[in-house]
Amino acid sequence: MAEPSNVEDYLADVPTDVRATLEQLRRTIKTAAPDATETISYAMPTFKYQGRALLGFAAFKSHCSLFPYSRKVMVVLEEELQPFDTSGKGPTIRFSADKPLPAALVRKLVRTRIKEIEAG
Are 71 and 55 in contact (CB under 8 A)? Predict the structure, then answer.
């Protein structure tokens, strides 16, 4: 499969139930970071803020993932992330389409990552 050229192309190739979850995640990120731009990076939807990767997301066969592109964010929000399968190596937060990340947590991830980017 060719790399999608935009977020709509990416989402069009995702199963319907997963697509609805990712579209809601996308809306939450857009609302929390209205100055961020959308692009495709590493073959997945990615929001950029001030030219730097803010958050990315992707669908996989058995789960979805949110990528905060920062180990520091994972440490800062470690307690809130405990209910989820995470990896600091990537850094990655895994969730299922039927149990999406809470919007409040996504907003907190966005705010934390924006502060990190702005701090340089």
Answer: no
Global confidence as pTM = 0.92
**Structural Rg of the chain based on CA atoms:** 13
Per-residue model confidence as pLDDT tens digits over 34-69: 999 999 998 999 999 999 999 999 999 999 999 999
Extract the tokens encoding 16. Answer: 């319907």
- CA–CA dist 90, 46 (Å, integer): 15
Instruction: Give the whole-angstrom CA distance, residue 74 versus residue 69.
Output: 9
Q: Which domains does the chain have, with CATH numbers?
A: 7-112 (3.90.1150.200)
- Which element (helix H / strand E) includes 69? none
Residue 70, CA atoms < 13 Å, CB-side half-sphere: 22
Which two tokens mark 100?
């999406």
